[in-house]
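ARCHIVE CARD
SHELF: 3
SLOT: left
DATA:
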Amino acid sequence: MTKLTPIQLDDNTIIYIEATDDVNVPLVIAEEPAEEEEEALTVRLPAAK
């Protein structure tokens, strides 16, 4: 059965999506970040003066 489902955003905007009960959701397997991504996450910014 199809129905409209409201989703409210942080700015109070409401979006209606069409939802059905027969949704097939694929299994998501998280991958480890690449070496370059790990380095980018550890970069320190200089302190503000």
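SLOT: right
DATA:
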Amino acid sequence: MTAVPYRYLDLNQYGFVGYGDAVKGLDLGHRIDSESGCSEVFSLKDGLTVATFCGE
């Protein structure tokens, strides 16, 4: 698990990271799925995936 890279913090896909995105980012983690190689942003509270980014 690592800190969420800046490019993945724009979870609402508005094209910029707003204040709300930055605050939500404090409760998120980042991992790379070993099977697919996709990047996953997940909730630190329960470990559930919030967003998945593939093919970058």
